[in-house]
Amino acid sequence: MDIRALRYFAAVAETGHMTRAAEQLGIQQPPLSLQIKALERELGVLLFRRHPRGVALTDAGRLFQAEALRMLQDMESMKQRMTRVAKGQAGTLAVGFTSSAAAHRFMPDALREFRRAYPDVELQLREDNAAELTEALAAGRLHCGLLRVPVARPEGLMFETLLREPVLVAMPSDHRLALGRDKDSRPLPLAKLCEEGIILVRRPGAPGLYADLLALCHAKGLRPRVVAEVDRMMTNLNLVAAGVGLSVVPASMHGVHAHAIAYTRLADGGQLDAPLTLVSRADEDNLPALNFAALLRRLAQENPGS
Hints:
By secondary structure, this protein is an alpha/beta fold. It has three domains: 3-87, Orthogonal Bundle (Arc Repressor Mutant, subunit A); 91-162 and 276-302, D-Maltodextrin-Binding Protein, domain 2 (3-Layer(aba) Sandwich), CATH 3.40.190.10; 164-274, D-Maltodextrin-Binding Protein, domain 2 (3-Layer(aba) Sandwich). Helices cover 43% and strands 23% of the residues. It has eleven helices and eleven strands. It has helices at residues 3-15, 18-25, 29-43, 59-86, 99-103, 106-117, 130-138, 190-194, 209-219, 233-241, 287-302; strands at 48-51, 54-57, 91-97, 121-127, 144-147, 157-172, 197-201, 225-230, 247-250, 261-265, 273-281. The strands form three sheets. Strands 3, 4, 5, 6, 9, 10 and 11 form a seven-stranded mixed β-sheet that branches. Strand 7 (197-201), helix 9 (209-219) and strand 8 (225-230) form a beta-alpha-beta unit. Helix 1 (3-15) crosses helix 2 (18-25), helix 1 (3-15) crosses helix 4 and helix 6 crosses helix 11 (287-302). The chain is rod-shaped and about 105 Å long. The two termini are 58 Å apart.
């Protein structure tokens, strides 16, 4: 049974007349009559009683009419949904982000604007470290991701720098280097940082922001003392707040655990910054993902210093 047969049946049932239904459908009456007879044969029931003034539904025809109208409505709803999907106005968008990327005001602003523009797109959000997000994107479990410095660049993924921001040194608020620093606006020298225990956020063997920090130290002949390596930025700041060591974080993390952490500029920070990187698949065909990426690029261009 095809959808055309249902439409023909519905038109005849509504008008109660083969000729008027044929005119409404824009076809000749004989082909319409043949279609109705073929439908009756397929169903094995008589749908209409013929009389001189037209046709009337049988009991079976009235039962079938309810089903036919429901099926036509379902088909129309499906067509409308698919039209919205084809325009990227519906569907699913799976976005991953690191905690430090999420801390940047750009991230919630972008999600809020996307939800306002595409309210029928289901957003699936996942927070993880940069390595896990990159692997999830490469495996097709995410449509796009926002992270800082890429830790790997698998084939088939694209990496775009949307924004850049400076880094800050995070230290326990009761640390000797923090005491009195509110009166001293001078940045902390990199050499002073390397004299303290440093916490790194990285997966063993993976590069990233903290690999850049270590490279900068080594380039200046400094030997940093690493006291801990963790997977996530929030774990990093929890350890700083607990007095385990100092760390370097994107400036947008300023204010996290403000009661226990002091933040200051790094004297050599001009050679070290924290980008906000969009990662996506080169062959992406998910329209919500393409629309989201376009939105991110536009917002980044409109607010380069956000």
